[in-house]
Amino acid sequence: MSDAQQLKARLHACVDTADEAGGLDEENFTTLMGLINDLAQVNPYVAAERPDIVAGSWSTLFASFGARHSSGKTVRHAADLKIHSLGQLPSAAMQVLSIVQEIDEQGEAYNNVVDFECGEDDTPGRLIVRGRFSCEATAPIRYQVGFYRAEVLPRDGATQATLCAGLGFNDGEPLSAEFKPPPFYSDILFVDEELRINRGNFGGVYVLARRDGDTYSF
Q: Which residues share a beta bridge with 199?
């Protein structure tokens, strides 16, 4: 077993200690950050050189969202639609269930897909924040990302009417917005055929596993 395989096995074992919301205790959080640093040293692919490896649909196993769990947030957490849509859609309470990132090498798409529930009936919805990526030779592990559109869609039997009701919107209220891309970046610390680890420009760290099956946003 290679060094990278051993580190990945330890990382997965650490992530498996998370609670139902995806949170780690202090000891395992510290261990995970150390394993991420170690994996970055044995990264087999440079992102800018192998966009085909970075491309695909990736499920978030662990997210820190910035400074120490972003004041306690985990993958599954109570959230606000306005925050997750980069301030482009109205404020509405929702419960985030999962976060998927989808990257398309040909179209240079870099999309975040958030499945959530809202309202008293836990109405299922999906937020897609669409972006495009580019790379610069001076920072070969960095993807510059410009998000330009946020849209909310019903899923799993919900309708636009029931989703609007769950979010507290008027039926027919716009559930999408296009905007000027704010500048973001994401450093791909490690990527192979199975695992990807990103660090964002706000200090968030994300551990993602490649998904099989259909994509959500392409």
A: 187, 205
3-state secondary structure 69-101: HHHHCCCCEEEEHHHHCCCCCCCCEEEEEEEEE
**pLDDT in the model for residue 68:** 43
First to last CA, the chain: 36
Domain boundaries, the chain: 3-210
Per-residue confidence (pLDDT) for residue 71, from 0 to 100: 39
Distance of alpha carbon 32 from alpha carbon 29, whole angstroms: 5
Query: What kind of architecture, by CATH, is found in domain 3-210?
Result: Beta Barrel (2.40)
C-alpha dihedral (172, 173, 176, 182), degrees to nearest 10: 170
Separation of alpha carbons 108 and 110, rounded Å: 7
**Residue pLDDT, tens place only, 102-122:** 999 887 899 999 999 999 999
